[in-house]
Design a protein that fits this description.
about 180 residues, alpha/beta, Rossmann fold, 4-stranded parallel beta sheet, 4 strands, about 10% strand
Length: about 180
C-alpha cells in the first residue's frame, strides 16, 4: 500500500478476525493453525507496520487500535489457536507502543469478551457453551457491539492522548478473577 493512498489518516483499527476450529489443540492441523494466525495476528502486524511506517515517514502522530480478545488472557478449551493469536496481538501492542512512542504513535488493544454478535443472536453458537461462558462473567451479561465501539472511539480520541501500550479488557469482569 502506498503512503499517498493513506495520506491524512490518523487512526488504524485492526478488526479482522476468525475463530479457531472448535477442536482440541492436538487435533489442529498445520493449515488450520496457519489460517487462524494469518488472519488474526499476521494481518494485524503487517497492517500496523504499514500504517506506522507511513506515519513515521510523514512525521505525523497517530493511533493504532487492534482488536484482541479475553481469549488471549483466559484459557478456553477448543479455542487454542485463536487465544494464542489474540495473546500475540496484546503483546505486539506493547512492543509497537514502546518502539513508536518517540514518533507520537499510540498503539492500544481492545479485548472484548463474549459479545452479542449476529452469530450468537442467530443461535449458531452452542447454547450450553454460551451459558457456561455467561456464568463466568461477573456482570452476568454478554457485551454489546456498542460497548466495543465506545472503547475504540475513546482510544482514538484526544481524551486518550496519554494512553499507549494498553489492552483494555471489555469482558464484564471475566479477567478480574
Amino acid at each position: 500500500m502506498a503512503d499517498h493512498e493513506l495520506e491524512g489518516l490518523q487512526v488504524l483499527i485492526n478488526n479482522a478476525g476468525m475463530p479457531s476450529p472448535n477442536k482440541k489443540a492436538i487435533e489442529i492441523t498445520r493449515d488450520e493453525w496457519q489460517c487462524v494466525m494469518d488472519v488474526n495476528l499476521t494481518g494485524t502486524y503487517f497492517m500496523s507496520t504499514c500504517f506506522g511506517r507511513m506515519l513515521i515517514n510523514q512525521d505525523r502522530p497517530g493511533s493504532i487500535i487492534s482488536l484482541g480478545s479475553s481469549h488471549g488472557t483466559v484459557g478456553f478449551s477448543g479455542a487454542s489457536t485463536y487465544g494464542i493469536a489474540k495473546a500475540g496481538i496484546a503483546h505486539m501492542t506493547k512492543m509497537l507502543a514502546i518502539e513508536w512512542a518517540p514518533h507520537q504513535i499510540r498503539v492500544n488493544c481492545v479485548a472484548p469478551g463474549s459479545t452479542m454478535t449476529e452469530t450468537r443472536i442467530a443461535g449458531l453458537i452452542d447454547p450450553a457453551r454460551s451459558q457456561m461462558m455467561l456464568d463466568r462473567i461477573p456482570l452476568r451479561r454478554f457485551g454489546l457491539p456498542e460497548d466495543v465501539a465506545g472503547a475504540i472511539r475513546y482510544l482514538a480520541s484526544p481524551a486518550a492522548a496519554y494512553i499507549t501500550g494498553h489492552t483494555l479488557m471489555l469482558d464484564g469482569g471475566l479477567t478480574a478473577y
